[in-house]
């Protein structure tokens, strides 16, 4: 690839998060700019992240210089992420359903359990628990680059992405970066800042896909015969390639 732009539930429903992201992208494509997306975003997309960044990774869609074609490509990519994850949503076939809600009370049913009795007033002051310290909201690269645990929906989505890619690559031979990049592009993984690599290493082709509408990143390796994958969770403020993996 000749030009690179740097690189975005637990068991919550990923579809809602992804749909909100897609809506924001569509608004951007119609000319709506996010507040604060001034001047420096475009430069940040083409500059490689430093080892110890002093600020959070910019959202590539905040770049006011994006062309209409680039905006459409970003919307198409997010649509793909939503489509692949959709069957993994809670209640879909092959995915655990939510536990049944409690039965409604029958007419005339009386609640037998009241509030716990209050202790007798002894006149002795009851010590209050200390309030928890405020959360640290300052930028801390080492904290946000820690691997995030994926929820069930994103684990399921990772398998589905892996199968799509394996179907396009496995058995096609030609373990070259050019071949892998072309095959990934043909099935929709064609955004520069969402695809790191492909690069050749020890006779194999390695690549990383940023599939975040939530927290999913995916490392892939193709050896000319088959493709292997390693999904993991990444905070949105750092690049997939910056994450510090669990031992």
Number of strands: 4
Strand order of the largest sheet: 1-2-3-4
**Estimated radius of gyration:** 23 Å
Treating each run of at least 4 consecutive H or I residues as one helix, how many helices? 6
What's a concise summary of this model?
This protein is an alpha+beta fold and 247 residues long. It is built from six helices and four strands.
Description:
Helix 1 packs antiparallel against helix 3. The N terminus is likely disordered. Helix content is 30%, strand content 11%. The chain is built from six helices and four strands; from the N terminus they run ααααααββββ.
Features:
247 residues; alpha+beta; 4 strands
Layout of strands and helices, then pairs:
Layout lengths: L13 H16 L10 H7 L21 H18 L55 H4 L7 H18 L7 H10 L8 E7 L2 E7 L5 E7 L4 E7 L14
Antiparallel strand pairs: 1-2, 2-3, 3-4
Helix pairs in contact: 1-3
């Amino acid at each position: 690839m000749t030009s690179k732009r740097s690189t975005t539930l637990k068991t919550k429903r990923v579809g809602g998060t992804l749909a909100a992201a897609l809506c924001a992208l569509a608004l951007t494509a119609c000319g709506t700019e996010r507040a604060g997306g001034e001047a420096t975003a475009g430069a940040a997309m083409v500059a490689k992240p430093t080892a110890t960044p002093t600020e959070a990774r910019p959202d590539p869609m905040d770049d006011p210089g994006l062309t209409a074609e680039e905006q459409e490509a970003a919307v198409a990519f997010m649509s793909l992420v939503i489509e692949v994850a959709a069957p993994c949503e809670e209640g879909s076939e092959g995915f655990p359903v939510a536990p049944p809600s409690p039965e409604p009370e029958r007419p005339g049913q009386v609640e037998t359990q009241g509030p716990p009795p209050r202790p007798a007033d002894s006149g002795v002051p009851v010590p209050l628990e200390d309030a928890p310290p405020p959360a640290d909201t300052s930028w801390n690269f080492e904290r946000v680059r820690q691997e995030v645990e994926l929820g069930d929906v994103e684990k399921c989505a990772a398998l589905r992405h892996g199968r799509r890619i394996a179907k396009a690559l496995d058995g096609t031979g030609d373990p070259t970066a050019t071949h892998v990049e072309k095959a990934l592009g043909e099935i929709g993984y064609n955004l520069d800042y969402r695809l790191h690599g492909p690069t050749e290493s020890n006779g194999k082709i390695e690549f990383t896909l940023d599939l975040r509408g939530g927290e999913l990143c995916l490392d892939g390796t193709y050896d000319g015969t088959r493709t292997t994958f390693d999904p993991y969770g990444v905070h949105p403020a750092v690049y997939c390639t910056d994450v510090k993996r669990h031992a």
